[in-house]
Amino acid sequence: MPEQQQWTITATEQPPEWFIQAVKQYTPASSGLYAAQLLWQRGIKDRQQLTAFINYKVYQPASPFEFGQEMHLAIARLQQAYNTKEKIAIWGDFDADGITATSVLWDGLGQFYAQNTQLVYYIPNRLKESHGLNNQGIDNLAKEGCKLIVTCDTGSTNVEEIIYAKQLGIDVIVTDHHTLPAERPPVAAIINPRYFPKEHQLFNLSGVAVAYKLVEALYQTLPNVAKYPLEDLLDLVAVGLIADLVQLSGDCRYLAQMGIQRLQEDFKQPAAARRRPGVGRLLELCQKSGDRPTDISFGLGPRINAVSRIQGDASFCVELLTSRDVKRCNELAEVTELANARRKSLQKDVQAQVAQKLTQLDLSTTSVIVLEDAQWPAGVLGLVAGQIAQETGRPTILLSTEGAGEQGAGGREQGAGGEITSLSSSERAERPANANSTQHSALVLARGSARSVNSVDLYQLVKEQAHLLHRFGGHPFAAGLSLLVENIPLFTAAINQQLRQSLGSTTLTPTVQADLTVTVADLGKELFLELKLLEPCGMGNPVPKLLIQNCWFENSWHRNQQDWQGKKVQYIKAEFDIRDDSSRSAFPGLWWGHYKDELPIGRCDCIAELDYNTFKKRYEIRLIAVRSSANSALNAPLSLTPFILDLRNQEHSATQHGLNAPLPLTGLIIEDCPTNWDDLRMWLRRCLAISRSTSGLENQQQLAIAWSKPKHQPPNQIWLTLVGIAKYLSRTNQLVTRGQLLEKIGISNQTLLVGIKALKYLGFTVQRQDRSLQFTWNPNDSVENLADEAVARFLAAVREEQFQQQYFAEVPLSTIVAIASYDSK
Question: pTM of the predicted model, to two decimals?
Fold first, then answer.
C-alpha cells in the first residue's frame, strides 16, 4: 500500500509593506496579504513586474520576429507558396497542445491558402503511430501533391524524415518547442523557442503558441489578406498552453490571459452566434463557462486528449475546434464526451487493478514500480502511472501487452505525450545495436508509459537500460517505451538497482506541499478573488495549496459520475462540508476519485485548493490530501491549537476586568504587539519549556496573545517626539531609562537604537549611567546631510515596525499555529 505522505509548507518571506499595499489595490475587498505573500515567494518583487503579471493590457509581448532569421526564412517560404499556389500540409500531433496548434495553423494559414485544396492537415494515429513525422505519412502527402509541410508541436529532431521529404521535393518548416537537434536539420526554417536563453520571454512557449507566432508574422507580412482578426485564434492558444502544463510566464502568461478572455466572451454568446460552437458545446458538457484556467485543465484539455487515447485517430478534433457548423460541432462534441467518459472508466479500472498489484509489492525495497498486464489499454497507462507515482513517491512504469501479437516490428512506443509533453518519433528514441525488425517480428512486445516524481530523471534512468528495450523516448518526468515481454523481469531488477545506487541513503517519500495556512472562516469569495490574481496558474506558478488544520468533515456522500446521456460511469466523487473552530458555518468541498468512507473520522488536517463551481454557483474546496491530526507531520509535539489562545483586539486588555474571552488558568499573556516572529517564538519557547518541565499535556501552559490593533502616530511625529524628549532631558540634565523612553514613544528597542544614532548626527551625545541614559546637546551644522540620511533610516524603521505590528494584529491564528508548530519540534 502507498506510504504515508510527507507534508511540507512553503517557506515564507514576509513581503514589505509597500508591496502588500500595491497588491491590495487589486483586492479592495480583502487585505491582500495572502496574494502578496504568494507573489513575493514566486519572484514578483517590483511594481513593474506586479503590474505586468496581473494586467495583461500593460504587458509588452515579444515580436514574432524575435525568432530572427528562422522566422524570416519561414515567412519567405510561405510567401513563395502563396505566390505560386503550392499545396501545404500541416503536420500536427494528437495531444491537446498538438491538436490546438494544428487548429491555429488551420484557421490562421487558412486566411491565406484555400482550405482542403491548397491547405490540408495530418495528425498521426496515437495507437498506430508515434509522435512526429514518419515516412509513410510523408509518402501520402507527396502523392497528394504537397510541396511544403509545416509541423506544429513536433519535428525538431526528425532529421531522417526531413531528409526523406526533401528527396521527394517537399520542404519542411518546423514549429516546435521540444528538444533541439544536435545540428540544424535541413529544413526551410526551424522555429523553436529552445534556441532562446531560459530568461527570454518566449522560452516557455508551447507548440500552439509557437504556431500562433508564425501566423502572427504572416499577418504582419501580408496585412491586407486575412478576413478575420488574428486575436480570434487566442482562445485556442489558451487551451493548448494550459492543457500542456508549460510554465505560464512571459508571453505564455500573456497569451493565456488574452485567450481566456476571448474564450469567456465567446461562450456568453448564443450557440448559433459563437465563433467556436464546438468549444462552447464541450464547455456545456463539462459544466464549465470558460472563465477559469481550471475549465481548460479539468474540462477541455482532458476531453481533447481522450479522443486519441481511446480511438487513436483524433483528426476530427480540428474540425470540432474550428468549424462554425453548430449541428456538426454538437455531434463531434458528443463523440468527444463519450471518449472522455470511456477514458475515465478505463482509467478507474486500470487504477484499481494497479492498486491491487501494489499490495503484492514491498515498497520498502522497491525504488521503481514496474507492473504489466495483458489487458491494460495503452492509452490510459500514462495517466495511471502519474497517479501512482504521486501516491507512492516512486517512478512508475506500467506496461501492456494488449495487441502485442499484431504489433511485431512495426510497433512503436506510445511516448510520453498526453498532459505532460509530446515527443517526436525519433526524438531521443533508442534501439539496441543488435536489434532489427526481423529479430522482433515474431516476438511479443510490451509497450507502456512511465512517470517520475521527486526530481528523479526518468529519461536517464530508462536510457541506461536501452540494451533491454526495443524503443523508448521521453524526458526527465515522462517516457514511453517498448520491450520484449521476456525482458521485463531483468529490466525491473536492473532499473531498481540503478536507482538505489544513485539515491544512496535518500528515501523516496510521497510529498504534498502547502503554500498557505488558513482556517475555514478564511474560505470564500474574498480569499478566492484574492488568490485569483495569480491566475492563470501552471508550471512555476502552481494553484495555491491551502493547509487547513484541526478540521473535520460533515454531511459526506459520494456517487458514480454520469455522462451527459445519464449513463453510469465508474468514476467516484465524494462531496462534504468542512468545519473547524474558526466559524460556526461549514464550507462545501469535493474529493475527486474517492469514496466518502476514505474521509477520516474526527479531527484532521487537509490540503486543498479553493475553487468556484460555475455549475452550482458556489465557492468550494477541492481536496488534495487529508490525514488524521494525530498522524500529521505538521503537528507539534504539543497540541498548539488550544495551546495558543487568541485574545487579540478585545475591548479590554487581558489584565483588566471585563474581558469577554476566558483567561488561561495558567500560562503567559502577551499584551505588547510583536514586530517580528522572533519575539513571538521567544514567548512560545518559554511557554513550551514550562509545559514540558511540568506534567505535559494534562496541565499544559497556555500562551495568550492579547495585544490590540495598534494606534500608530505618523513616523514624523514620533521623530519630533524623540527629539523633543532629548532636548528636554539635555536642558534639565535628567536621566531616563530605556524602558521609559520605549513606553513614551511607542517603538521597539531596535528602532530606538536607530533613532539614537540619528540624534547623534544632530549633535546629541548619549551616555550610559548605571541603567539610565543621559542626553547632552551640542548642535553641529557640519553634518546636516548625514543627519538627513540618519533620520530617513529611522523613519523607515518606524514604518516597517508599524507595518509588522499591523500584520500581527490581523494574521490568522492558523498561521501563528503553523509557524509555531515547526519551531516546537
Answer: 0.70
